[in-house]
Design a protein that fits this description.
The chain is of the alpha+beta class. The protein contains 5 helices and 11 strands.
């Protein structure tokens, strides 16, 4: 009887030990040895905007009178990146760097730049009188009269060529000279005669003698003079349709206001 009870107790203890080892202790040891180290999860960095929302000091109240109820807070605006340092700025386009704005010049400005010579030899600007606006029988004179003794040489005021030699009832012996660009016509009238060799298309240089002071046409024989004016030519270069320009300011003394 005692042997049977001993055997039963031995078997029961052996079974309990086996179950403890196989079901409790060994699995924990095996799982701990086989379990890999946990990899920490990557946490994305918050965006500037989300960071702004996360910071209470970055929140500023916004007053919106039309909203109902008013919006409590909006995120503070994100600052722009700093501008590039001097010297790293991109160069402007070539069109901008080479652009030259045109100058707005009057006819007198352009003619002054050319340095036109006074067309009567030996006459100074101080002796001139502005006769351009004078009335001549119900019409404007639109020219200056340069008084000088008969036979005084008349000079080409600018480089150009002889466009036309003409004899008219009013102007007598006349010369029409075009400048080199065909922009202006210089008109000389009441000549006593032409210089030798003067003819249409002849190339003239500033200061060349083209004729002599006289009183041909409707000028008084007692007052020989050169009738001179400048016409700005149109696209068709018709001098009789040109715009008359008063040449007096080019050579005469300054007019007091």
């Amino acid at each position: 009887m005692k042997v049977s009870l001993f055997t039963l107790g031995f078997l029961t203890g052996t079974l309990a030990t086996y179950l403890f080892l196989t079901q409790v202790w060994w699995p924990d040891v095996r799982l701990a040895a086989a379990r890999p180290e946990a990899t920490p999860l990557a946490v994305p960095s918050p965006s500037p905007l989300s960071a702004a929302f996360a910071r209470p000091e970055a929140l500023v109240p916004v007053e919106d009178p039309e909203a109902s109820p008013p919006s409590p807070y909006v995120a503070e605006s994100i600052s722009s990146p700093p501008p590039p340092e001097l010297g790293t700025l991109p160069a402007p386009p070539n069109e901008t760097r080479s652009l030259e704005l045109p100058l707005l010049l009057t006819d007198l400005d352009r003619l002054r730049i050319r340095g036109l010579v006074l067309p009567v030899q030996g006459v100074g600007g101080e002796s001139l009188r502005d006769t351009f606006p004078d009335d001549r029988g119900g019409r404007r004179h639109q020219a200056i009269d340069i008084m000088a003794p008969r036979g005084t040489p008349v000079l080409a005021v600018d480089d150009g060529h002889v466009e036309k030699l003409f004899t008219s009832k009013q102007g007598g012996l006349t010369v029409y000279q075009f400048d080199e660009r065909g922009e202006y016509c210089y008109y000389y009238a009441h000549l006593d005669g032409y210089a030798a060799g003067l003819e249409p298309t002849k190339v003239l240089r500033r200061g060349d003698v083209i004729g002599f002071v006289g009183s041909t046409g409707n000028a008084s024989a007692k007052a020989p003079h050169l009738h001179f004016t400048i016409f700005r030519l149109g696209p068709d270069q018709r001098w009789w349709e040109g715009t008359a320009i008063n040449a007096y300011p080019l050579w005469g003394p300054p007019t007091l206001p």
